[in-house]
Amino acid sequence: MTSLYIVEIEPLDTRYSAQWKEYIPKLIETYALDNNIDLDIFVVEGDLRDDPLPQGAFLNFNSTNIYKSSQLISIAELFQQGKVKQDDIFLFTDAWNPTVIQLKYISDLLKIPVRLHGLWHAGSWDKFDAIGQILGNKPWVRNAERSMYDCYDVNWFASSFHANLYAETFGLPPWDSKIQLTGWPMEYLVDVLKPYSLLTKRNQIVFPHRIAPEKQLEIFRDLAASMPHIDWVVSQDTRLTKDQYHAQLGQSQIVFSANLQETLGISTCLEAPLVNAIPLAPDRLSYQEIIIDDWRYPSAWTENWESYQANKVLLIQKINHLMEQAVNNPYKVQQLLQTQREKSYAFMCADNLLHGMLNHLKK
Q1: Of 13, 148, 167, which Cα lies nearest the Cα of 68?
Q2: How far apart are CA 332 and CA 340, in angstroms?
Q3: Are 328 and 236 in contact (CB under 8 A)?
Q4: 173 and 26 fall within a common domain
Q5: pLDDT (tens digit, 9 = 90+) per residue, 215-250?
């Protein structure tokens, strides 16, 4: 029987990785049962520390390496104990994990070939990611990332924008054979967010992003000052539980973005339409392939502060129109929301990943 080892991303309560810890093994188990696949599933955990986060970061840069290093020890022990067999599968739910290089070393030198799959979230090729901001294009990090890429049999990306960004940075041909697209394994959001879709709407627009330069919070605050007849809420201004955050989204008419970088957009592209909030985003980045035409505004309107000032009146008109439409023509908005949900679902459904990993095992 084939074994699948899930080398999990750190399950942090502030990120969706906490939900992934429980959900992904169940998702794979269900798929295997439904498709008559004999599969043993194991989770490779790490030593999770509750260390303080650096200012503005979503993980501790030292603790994450303690976590990954302890995963390496567990993987090496699996080989040492003779548990890993030829053609077993390792799924790294965060592909940026140097452990994969050492796993490949063990596998190749012991002549126990295994199949490696990795889900890429971010890295130095994204200048707005922490690694990109702090390390930039230092040779050691770029070479390490390319080495990790080469270790994987399949490199999974959640959007064409992200896949193309990676390929362009590393000089790979467009749609290199080792690159595949899949929705992230987040189908659970449909059920989780359903209660919040029933909340009464307020005259409210929410800014769901973390506070970082590429999110352009200053544009949101300037719009708030210019449109006082609407309540403008910045989620990060208050420490919210997940329940409180989702309730905030569910009570809002619009979820607003002026991001300069986005490779998926969970809050805007996935969560907002599920709670019946309009995702309003620029016509750039991953938004181009996920958000429907009606709810994308021209990229030039928020490309920078000067461009925003030149187009501010147009953006205000767009927002006023959508707010009025939400109140006066809710049927039309619901039709558009259904279209958006159908489009968004492809980016929160991991069918491509499951097929790509497991279909060769079908009886």
Answers
A1: 148
A2: 12
A3: no
A4: yes
A5: 999 999 999 999 999 999 999 999 898 899 999 999
